Amino acid sequence: MRSFYEFEAVKANGEPVELSVYKGNVALVVNVASQCGYTPQYAGLETLYRTYRNRGFRILAFPCNDFGGQEPGTIDEIVRFCREKYDVTFDLFAKVHVVGAEMHPLYRWLTAYAQPAGDVQWNFEKFLIARDGKIAGRYASRVTPDDPEFVGAIERELSRNADV
Questions:
Q1: Is 9 helix (H, G, I), strand (E, B) or coil?
Q2: Digit-coded pLDDT (tens) for 6-45
């Protein structure tokens, strides 16, 4: 199994980034969409980020138009929407595919090795990455950012050894 830190992605501003820059942090990878019934989860994600960022928690949001055409805008429109409507300060990335032949390599790895394995089912599916770059959990779209079990999993990962 590869590590999360071996992948690259493109930030919303077009800047390529090696995910190794997140090494030693607990990361949450989420495929997002602006016109989805789950879109209000942006507010909860931002609350999580602001609550735990000083402990090494990072959120990586990947806009995706794979489900119901619910992210049709340009990346500039998506960034503006996220900032104006939800005051998002966590990391936004360029639009990607999370299913199908053009699936981003990160999502190919996540869906192969997370439990349960298998395709992303909808927008706002969440993958928790431990400080060592291994997958620590997978959470369905319906799991809200304030779900006690989900928050507990984040807190457990944050409390694990930060010296990895």
A1: strand
A2: 999 999 999 999 999 999 999 999 999 999 999 999 999 9
Q: How many Å apart are CA 71 and CA 8, to the nearest integer? A: 22
23 contacts 5 by C-beta, under 8 angstroms: yes
Torsion sign (Cα): 128, 13, 52, 163: positive
State the CB neighbour count (10 A cutoff) for residue 150: 19
Residues with Cβ within 8 Å of residue 108, at least 6 apart in sequence: none
Tell me the angle at which helices 75-86 and 41-52 cross, rounded to the nearest 10 degrees. Answer: 70
Active site positions, annotated: 36
Dihedrals φ, ψ of 129, to 5°? -110, 125
* 104 CB-near residues (< 8 Å, 6+ apart): 9, 62, 96, 97, 98
Taking the C-alpha atoms of residue 159 and residue 55, their distance in angstroms, rounded to an integer, is 9
Element (H, E) at 57: strand 57-63
